[in-house]
Amino acid sequence: MKRVQIGNKQYNLCESVNDINDKRFNYFKMYMLKSLEGIDRPLFKATLQQATDFFNQSKYFQAFGKFQDYLKAIEFDGYNEDALSKCFALICLRDGEDQLNVDENFLNEKLEEMWQEGLTRGFVEGSVQNFTISSPLSFGQYSAMLEEVTEKLDQTFWDGLRTLQGNPQPDLND
Fold it and tell me: How far is CA 86 from CA 2, 5, 47, 101, 152, in A?
């Protein structure tokens, strides 16, 4: 772990899986998937079960309503960004913080405190990325892929974008 400062407060930042409790790490992975896929797996599982229960009771409108509620939840602005912030809250610890505490309200309160202190999105993204890259066995190819994409994005992406801008695509509706 390393000490970091956000505003006027000091925190301990987990640098790899060697610094994080296994229970907390499982929540980290769940939020990581949520930020990448935009899918809250526990919420989807609960929604599917509730909808199935309604279908079994021939309450089709209520079952459909459960899926509509789920759709609204995943379309909510900032949903995926919030998941990455939660990953950060799990690896950035207050002094004496109980790593077994993974309560969502606790994480939200901690994030509110950090945002008030001036936590930036760049620091969140960089810290989570460094954590995953420092733990390659735990994240499989994800960290290597992310690093490769990030390196190539600057040159390849921008060159491709310039090429497209210089050669407008034909209108397929003609």
Answer: 19, 18, 22, 13, 27
- Read off the tokens for 99: 């790593």
Location of structure tokens 């892929």: 145
Element at 93 (helix H, strand E):
strand 92-93
Which 3-state string (H, E, C) describes 41-67?
HHHHHHHHHHHHHHHHCCCHHHHHHHH
The DSSP result for 112-162, as a single string, is HHHHHTT--HHHHHHHHHHHHHT-HHHHTTHHHHHHHHHHHIIIIIHHHHH
- DSSP-derived letter for residue 7 is T
Q: What is the pLDDT of residues 50-100, one digit of tens each?
A: 888 888 998 888 888 887 777 776 665 444 458 889 999 999 999 999 999
Amino acid occupying residue 107: L
Calpha distance 6→118 (Å, rounded): 6
For residues 153, 154, 157 and 158, what is the CA-based torsion angle, rounded to 10 degrees? 170
Per-residue confidence (pLDDT) for residue 94, from 0 to 100:
96
Pairing of strands 2-6, 92-93: unpaired
**Dihedral sign computed on CA atoms, order 159, 161, 162, 168:** positive
- Its pTM stands at 0.61
